[in-house]
């Protein structure tokens, strides 16, 4: 479904990615692990067109999207949930969801999607008229995921979905991710909580200073001594 082939990127003169190659197959959950500053978010930004790679190629369903705009990438079926949720705090839950579905032109389909999101996330349904900025962190994360799903993505990019959340809420968020996967959504998951990410992933890649240094099945990486020492605290 998604392929990165030797992608290189930088911020000005500062290198961020060095020949990053990875693959996400249809129906998988793939985890992208690494410390702060390793290049995880930069990888996602290159995929969705927020950062233009200096070299390499990004393809989605066999089509080169390396130089496509973000709107074009979303139209192709890729949606991203940003680190820190980034909901629109002065708009209601309902309005945030409507913005997520802005590319859906058919009014009936947009209403169907809205109803589907409120059914999937009952707490959002209870608070649909409430300002997004007044929601708890967990509720904002649910809203961010629901807003991304409004564009009907076949590939969902999740950037640190558990960051800053209480353990119980982290469990809820990971339950949502597992549910989406079971329903057929392909997911690329950036997550610092390596243990939780590897529990639900099919495969994983480890980034260090902008380069892929390890890759394999989630089980293999869970058993890898380097991963256990560096990311699992064992």
Describe the structure.
- This protein has 234 residues and is of the alpha/beta class.
- The chain has a single domain (2-231), classed as 3-Layer(aba) Sandwich (Rossmann fold).
- Helices cover 39% and strands 26% of the residues.
- The chain contains ten helices and ten strands.
- It has helices at 40-48, 70-76, 93-100, 107-120, 122-126, 137-149, 167-182, 194-200, 218-223, 225-231, and strands spanning 2-11, 14-24, 29-33, 55-60, 63-64, 78-81, 155-159, 186-190, 203-208, 211-217.
- The strands form two sheets. Strands 6-7-8-3-9-10 form a six-stranded mixed sheet, with helices on both faces.
- Helix 3 (93-100) runs parallel beside helix 6.
Pick out its properties:
234 residues; alpha/beta; Rossmann fold; six-stranded mixed β-sheet; 10 helices
In short:
This protein has helices at 40-48, 70-76, 93-100, 107-120, 122-126, 137-149, 167-182, 194-200, 218-223, 225-231, and strands at residues 2-11, 14-24, 29-33, 55-60, 63-64, 78-81, 155-159, 186-190, 203-208, 211-217. The chain is α/β, with parallel strands linked by helices. Helix 3 packs parallel to helix 6 (137-149).
Distance between the termini: 34 Å
* Main β-sheet description: 6 strands, mixed
Shape: globular
Q: Give the spatial strand order of the biggest sheet.
A: 6-7-8-3-9-10
Count the domains. 1
Query: Residue ranges: pLDDT <50 for 5 or more in a row?
Result: none
- Helix percent band: 25-40%
């Amino acid at each position: 479904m998604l392929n990165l082939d030797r992608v290189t990127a930088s911020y000005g003169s500062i290198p961020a990615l060095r020949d990053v190659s990875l693959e996400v197959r249809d129906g998988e959950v793939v985890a992208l692990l690494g410390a702060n500053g390793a290049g995880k978010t930069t990888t996602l930004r290159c995929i969705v067109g927020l950062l233009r790679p200096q070299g390499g190629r990004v393809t989605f369903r066999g089509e080169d999207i390396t130089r496509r705009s973000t709107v074009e990438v979303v139209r192709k079926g890729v949606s991203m949930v940003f680190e820190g949720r980034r909901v629109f705090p002065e708009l209601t839950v309902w309005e945030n969801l409507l913005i997520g579905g802005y590319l859906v032109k058919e009014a009936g389909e947009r209403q169907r999607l809205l109803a589907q999101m409120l059914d999937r996330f009952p707490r959002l349904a209870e608070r649909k008229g409430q300002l997004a900025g007044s929601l708890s962190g967990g509720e904002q994360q649910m809203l961010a995921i629901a807003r991304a799903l409004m564009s009907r993505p076949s590939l969902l990019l999740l950037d640190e979905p558990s960051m800053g959340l209480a353990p119980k809420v982290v469990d809820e968020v990971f339950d949502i991710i597992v549910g989406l996967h079971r329903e057929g959504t392909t997911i690329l998951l950036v997550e610092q909580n390596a243990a939780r990410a590897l529990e639900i992933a099919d495969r994983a890649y480890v980034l260090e200073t902008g380069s892929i240094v390890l890759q394999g099945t989630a089980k293999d990486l869970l058993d890898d001594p380097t991963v256990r020492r560096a990311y699992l605290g064992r």
